[in-house]
Amino acid sequence: MVLPTFSFETTAEEVATTFAEEIQGKNVLITGTSQNGIGFETARVIAKHANLVIITGYSEERLRLSEDAIKKEVSSAKIERLVINLSSLAGVRKAANVVNAHSLPLHVLIHNAAAPIAPFKLTVDGLESQFATDHVGPFLFTKLLSPKLLAARTTDYTPRVVFVSSSGHALGTGVDFDVLEHPDPAKYHLSDAYFQAKSANILTAIELSRSSKGAINAYSLHPGVIYTTMVAREESRAALQDLGMLGPEGLPDEARIQWKNIAQGAATTVVAAFDPRLNDTPGAYLNDCVVANELVAAHSSDAANAAKLWTVTEKIIGGEVHSVVQPR
User: Fold this and answer.
1) First CA to last CA across the chain, in angstroms?
2) What percent of the chain is predicted at pLDDT more than 70?
3) What keywords does the record list, in alphabetical order (predicted)?
4) In a domain, 148, yes or no
5) Which residue has the higher pLDDT, 243 or 197?
6) Helix (H/G/I), strand (E/B), else coil: 286
7) What is the pLDDT of residues 156-168, one digit of tens each?
8) What does pTM read for this prediction?
9) Is 188 among the residues known to form the active site?
10) Nearest-angstrom CA–CA distance, 274 and 279
11) Which CATH number belongs to the domain containing residue 79 in this structure?
């Protein structure tokens, strides 16, 4: 089978149709699946072919709306809802316990959820909110679910973890290791906090692929610039205007930036989750549905930074939770 060449215009539906055989029989968990977002679109197209799709979010009501919308279109879809608070270590552990109690293995874990770009705020664990929600919570969730992922591994299949990052990581100076454990409001800038979190996503994908020694393949990606409900938030508007993404009225500035619609915005995530051509490039960064490691800033591709971030984050979550390597 000759696989197509994907591009900026490719939609998630097109990718899922192309890889329908790869998706069949798979159990997939996706964080951040509220309607009108790329996580929902990712879940919708995968649900047409997968064995099970676990949709997650912080609101049971929103999850129910998402499930109903998917099942209205795909009546045969097997959907399960999971409430998770990624900004709370206890909340992450609670959600992981639910997944680990499930009888099925987990083939793909997609970290799509993200905190809004917002003023400085500490979580219940004393961490900066954006970094906690976008990096520390997903890191802990991945560690806790690693036995479930490893249970899906066969001689012919390697489970995957996908981190939705952003090209915005390159606008920052990389992860500031001095403030991870002890956030300093005096050093906080809301857009730079976002850039740091997205750098952390890329570094984690690199280190997870390296440390698992082929047991799990992890990828990060830039989904594109998409006008979602998170972008439309009032608290994020000023920062996005400063970046030139939004115009004076708070709407997309299409003269300066090429925007994707939601269908296009979810496409690279589905590629990262299922394209068999990626098997030979674990830890890769994707853009417009193809590997684009050359677009990663030096601070976010550095192996030493990746290893250091892993060590520091393990300390934050309380030490080793699960090894991501399982003897065979």
Assistant:
1) 32
2) 88
3) Oxidoreductase
4) yes
5) 197
6) strand
7) 999 999 999 999 9
8) 0.93
9) yes
10) 9
11) 3.40.50.720
